[in-house]
Write a structure and sequence with these properties.
Largest sheet of chain A: 6 strands, mixed
Structural class of chain A: alpha/beta
Distance between the termini of chain A: 17 Å
Helix content of chain A: 25-40%
Order of helices and strands of chain A: EEEHEEEHHHEHEHEEH
Helix content of chain B: over 70%
Shape of chain B: flat
Number of helices of chain B: 12
Oligomer: heterodimer
Structural class of chain B: mainly alpha
Chain lengths: 275, 276
């Protein structure tokens, strides 16, 4: 009954426009475990992410939000439908779509610097230049002085900073983030959210941010894509329309109401999901 | 661990004290060994068993000293070590290569997988007569026999290590632009290194064991052969000298292997220290 509300925004024509960075059209995905039955993880997803837009994918676990991210990243094959990023159909992973995972996925045998330089080396950037660029990005994410540490020597927040630096050093036009702050404590998490917004403003790029935290989604994103589970569908797309110029915007009425509105959307889902 | 800590403290106070602390550390660590040697000496000295069956420890030392003097120890030692290390080296390189292939290619898995499953539990020594038929009784047969036995722990550890690499680590590498080759050499190999090294640590003593066994069975040179020769001439000091020599070699080999592991897995050691 719930149609993907692509037109929920204030009357924009999006699909196929010059303005589109990611166009997901008619994507379904079946998850086939080796044992057990098949699950329809995504069912006919249509979504357009505008150029340099910050979008949050929000939903309960099992709604396929991470799957959608992995498909966009090219890590899983798109079997039904198409995903285009900047006009190119996604077929395999590439540094134009940087990814940040919840559990960092740093290379534990490499130092922070070597982790950050890995992508540059693959691109054939000369060593000296790669070192300079790695040093710069590590300053930006606040890891100066930890270049020679191994990931195991860092706190969770610092590991995620390193993982973000490793991705950002390649200056991807699209940043895919899979619950990146989900493994961090509340304080670190809040700090990372603030810094991510600052990074995004300094160097605009399209961000697709997967989370199950409503507050986080409204805090960060321009639009929140609310998903429902089993099968994973887009339930609603909500423009947050938050004015973030006020540093205290979290306390603003608009923010609180937006969080509330989305909570209601999700609770509707809870009621329905009970079998 | 505590021993090492104390030694480091001792270095700062005085060299004599630190040497004493070091000796005390050794005594603590290897006290049971010293006890065995003392018992051995006592049992032999008190003539509880005839010296033919068990010569006193000090006579064995004299014998080793003589072997050092006339050079036979070095000849035998180098032969045994050479066979062990050549066989071990081939087993490591081939084992890692086969293991990576098995883990990454379904064709290789189909082709070689069953052979590995059958070969692993098989007592590889059954091939010895065949190898003798084909390659004679010299080094070739011995080294091939060593490879056959030492390769399996390396293969299985490599397969387990390579298959156990986290999916998101591989995805990250691909995302950063790694091709198939990069993935194998710069991601899967180092990620699997802790497990591969564990397999290698198992295979090193196996290589030494098989080297000695083949020397005993095929004769020629090497410490194993020398022990059998001493036995034929009823020189029990020679037999026991071989036992001591091999114990020391085995111990030193394992020690160097451990040092190498610590060196290669510095990042991993730190990860483990982090957990404690």
């Amino acid at each position: 009954m719930v149609a993907p509300m692509e037109h929920a925004g204030p009357g924009r024509v999006e699909t196929g426009s010059e303005d589109a960075q990611i166009v997901v059209s008619g994507v379904s995905h079946v998850y086939r475990p080796k044992h057990g039955r098949q699950v329809l993880a995504l069912d006919d997803i249509n979504l357009t992410v505008r150029r340099n837009e910050f979008v949050a994918l929000l939903g309960p676990s099992g709604c396929g939000k991470s799957t959608l991210l992995y498909l966009t990243g090219g890590f899983l094959p798109v079997e039904q439908g198409t995903i285009c990023v900047l006009g190119e159909t996604v077929r395999k992973p590439g540094p134009d779509r940087g990814i940040v995972f919840q559990h960092f996925a740093l290379f534990p045998w490499k130092t922070v610097r070597a982790n950050v330089m890995y992508g540059l080396e693959r691109k054939g950037v000369p060593r000296r230049e790669a070192e300079v660029r790695a040093a710069e990005i590590l300053v930006q994410v606040g890891l100066k002085g930890f270049e020679d540490s191994y990931p195991s020597q860092l706190s969770g927040g610092m590991r995620q900073r390193a993982a973000i630096a490793r991705t950002l050093v390649l200056d991807p036009a699209t940043l895919l983030m899979d619950e990146p702050f989900g493994a961090l404590d509340a304080q670190t998490r809040n700090l990372m959210q603030i810094e991510l917004l600052a990074l995004w403003r300094r160097s605009p790029k399209a961000v697709v941010f997967v989370t199950h935290d409503v507050h986080e989604a409204v805090y960060l994103a321009e639009r929140v894509v609310v998903m429902s589970a089993r099968p994973g569908r887009i339930k609603a797309i909500v423009e947050t329309g938050i004015d973030r110029s006020d540093p205290e915007f979290v306390k603003s009425r608009a923010f609180v109401e937006k969080v509330d509105e989305i909570w209601h959307l999700i609770h509707e889902e809870d009621g329905k999901a009970a079998p | 661990m505590a021993v090492i800590g104390r030694t480091e403290d001792g270095v700062r106070s005085s060299p004599v004290a630190s040497a004493l602390v070091w000796l005390a550390g050794i005594a603590r660590e290897y006290g049971s060994l010293v006890l065995v040697l003392i018992c051995w000496e006592l049992v032999a000295r008190l003539s509880l068993v005839p010296p033919y069956l068990m010569p006193p420890f000090n006579e064995v030392l004299v014998r080793i000293w003589a072997e050092i003097g006339d050079g036979t120890l070095w000849v035998n030692l180098l032969d045994t070590l050479r066979r062990t290390l050549v066989g071990f080296g081939i087993a490591v390189v081939a084992g890692v290569a086969i293991g990576l292939l098995l883990a990454r290619s379904s064709t290789a898995e189909w082709l070689v997988g069953p052979l590995v499953s059958i070969g692993f539990p098989l007592p590889k020594i059954v091939f010895l007569p065949i190898f003798i038929l084909w390659f004679g009784v010299y080094d070739t047969s011995k080294v091939i026999m060593i490879v056959c036995d030492a390769i399996f722990p390396v293969i299985t550890a490599t397969v387990a290590g390579a298959q156990g690499v986290e999916r998101q680590i591989i995805w990250s590498a691909r995302n950063l632009g790694a091709g198939e080759r990069d993935l194998l050499w710069t991601i899967i190999l180092p990620a699997a290194a802790p497990q591969i090294l564990s397999g290698i640590e198992v295979s090193l003593p196996i290589a030494l064991i098989v080297a000695v066994i083949t020397e005993m069975m095929l004769g020629g040179t090497g410490i194993g052969a020398a022990m059998m020769e001493s036995w034929r001439f009823a020189e029990s000091t020679g037999v026991f000298a071989g036992l001591l020599e091999l114990s020391i070699i085995g111990f030193l080999l394992i020690r160097s292997m451990n040092a190498l592991r610590r060196r290669l897995l510095r990042w991993h050691a730190e990860a483990q220290a982090d957990l404690v």
